[in-house]
């Protein structure tokens, strides 16, 4: 079977999503780009019972290659790969705190400098649309312009990565930021960092990686 090790890595990462508390049960989905196609977790299957052959291979025109039923959210995975050539992994999850903010239909603003790890001075919330629809895919792509993560209103989050490890790290960091933001909102509106302050953070992130364009790890900042 082609890409058996990568398929197993997808399953292992999906299980880590649940173990880290950023996903529950069979919710969420995960994919990896393969040049002109991608691998994606199947629909309606427990991560614990998933085997490499259960991971579904799809073309970028939406065809299943071989056997299996892909996640019901495959459309935004396909569309993100088509729109974002810098992305190799798409992770979708329903973490509790980030989803709570998504249900408020709020962006996560620059209340903390680590918001910059998602690529900008905010983490946008895409408007609501029914799961699995082209409308949802369009909203997600717009919210992800110049970003590595977004919220989906009344739904969950999407996180993008260079590889599976980077995507999982960012998803965990996003949930930590969401928890901090919610806690701050219980007292009042947090003081936001200025554009100049966030610009300095971006410069420091770039120098931390020696100017390399690879997605920064959330570890060590």
Describe this structure in words.
The protein is an alpha+beta fold and 221 residues long. Helix content is 38%, strand content 15%. It has an eight-stranded mixed beta sheet with strand order 4-3-2-1-5-8-7-6, with helices on both faces. The chain has one domain: Class II aldolase/adducin N-terminal domain (L-fuculose-1-phosphate Aldolase, 3-Layer(aba) Sandwich), CATH 3.40.225.
Unreliable stretches (pLDDT < 50, length at least 5) are 211-221
Any idea what the CATH architecture is? 3-Layer(aba) Sandwich
Q: How confident overall, as mean pLDDT? A: 93
Radius of gyration, CA atoms, in whole angstroms: 17 Å
How many helices in DSSP terms? 6
The CATH class designation is Alpha Beta
Total count of strands: 8
Write down the domain tally.
1
Helix % is 25-40%
Run of helices and strands: HEEEEHEHEHEEHH
State the distance separating the first and last CA atoms. Answer: 40 Å
Keyword list:
38% helix; L-fuculose-1-phosphate Aldolase; 8 strands; disordered C terminus; alpha+beta; 221 residues; eight-stranded mixed beta sheet
